[in-house]
Predict the 3D structure of the following.
Amino acid sequence: MPDSPLTGIIATNAGATGSIANRPPTWRRLLPPTLFQSGTGGDTSGASWLVLLLFLGPALLVFATMTAYPMVRTVYDSFYTIDDPDKPQFIGLANYAQLVTDATFWRAVANTLIWSVAAPLLDVGIGLLLALCLYAKVPFTRFLRVAWFTPVLLSYVVVAIVWLWIYNYDWGIVNLGLRAVGLGFLASAWLGNPHIALASLIFIDVWKWAGFNMVVCLAALHSLPSEVLEAAELDNCGWGAKLRFVIVPLLRPTLLNLYILAFVAKMKVFDLVWIMTQGGPLWSTETVSTYVYKRAFAWNTFDLGYPATIASVWFAVVILTVLLLNRILRARDRVEF
Amino acid sequence: MRPFDLSRTLSRGGIMAILVAYTVFATFPFLWVGTMSLRTTTEIAYNHYAWPDPFHWAKFRTAWIDSAFSTYFANSATVVIGSVAVITLVGAAAAHCLARYRFPGNRLIYFILFSSIILPPQIVLIAIYQTLVEYNLYDTLWGLGLVYVSLQLPLTIYLLEGFFARIPQDLFDAAKVDGYGDFEIFFRLVLPVGMPAIATTVILNFILLWNEFLFAIVLISDDELRTLPVGIQQFMGDHFQDIGMIATGVMISVIPVIVVYAFFSEKLIQGMTAGALK
């Protein structure tokens, strides 16, 4: 998702909580209780294992060979130097030691985190505002919804190429526009200046995804009980207050969900950066994904062990972040409701 | 007159202004490429923002035949259609199994598949590359297709499981009374009844894989086997100045997506946002 439409992480934890009398042992309580159920399906007759295997087997086989095995192998690789694929040399934790002092890696981590924190805020915020505009019963709602969603469908390659032109120093529309209104001194090499290149890329990312968040927010707005909004209307509640005290609190679960989804998606960001700046200038747009790719496939020093180390560390970071976000946000929900 | 009404009028006007401005902002880049795809590079260099005059439709023919875009297009179509077919069948079978049958480990399998949706692809990228090289699947469309199946399978199962689980049990009981076996139930009941959800995942997977870039660039090195996103990127690298022709290539890659979107916009929007909405 690439940035893809991921699924609500929060949903998994929403399990039934048993009564205190028959609580499971401690280690089980650390995991969502639903994990130990044998399914919610209505077919309790107990189908033969052969049937289950035929239905589920192919999917599990694909998962085991193309997802689970590669994950394990990446972690395994991280303890080796693999310059010759036939003769990996075991080097213990040396790759990890090197990673700690690798300034480019830390730069990539910082850039990716800035991206993951800032872009979702803008995505969700702009998406919500756009959704509110459409919710205010304007004409052509259907058309606008479809038009605003278009950037979501364009591939990053297409988006990157078009925005390379939009940002073009001499004839890109951004600089032309600035010069036309007499702000020519603001015209910049949007991708060539290390201080603003990252922000320029994040801007494109927000442009691409705001429509997606708009659609989700709009659906959530339509599912709100209309009485609440009407009551706010009767109380002569202004738009700002209505937004702050009624709409945002009611939409909280949706907004949090969107934020987490976007956060995770941005931690993978690759295509846009690779096509537009390749991580430059001066590593100012390097992300973890582009750095892994560079070290594995685009540098002259061919070694698959070190990039595998970066990938393993990043994998751990992603998992921990998701768990942490889920924990923090859900804990707050529990206190408030 | 209370100030409330005035502010209401103002906010109405403000909203309309935002709507128009954002619509231009969201659609301008695409429309701009559309105009450039029908103009020659010389014309574009003269004025980057002019309406095509005349319309150079022949550029599409040139891009299609003289450049390798027909090859890229065929490769993309082969890989994407093939993997979407496999994803749909395998995913629907697994989703049906998880939604309908009770067996120990059901929810555990569901949870594991579901969690893998959030995996960053770079965690498997290097090992998949190694594995495909070892099994002589590197630089083949088969290998890329296999990876595509594994990429989209968890999300597909997740979306379909949610839908299949809501099919009333009565239907299944009735089918059993009629003597349907497990597989007849799947092919003659679940697939037809679940068709709306299946169609959604088909369209969704088609778009996402049609646009896929990272694995396509890592796992394919032969120019004859490149898919459209990588093909365009390479074309741009080689003909950096030829803006007109790049724009034509971009349009060729976007047209299938736009066609699908034109016919199924509601379904597509619904599919892409289904996960976020729960």
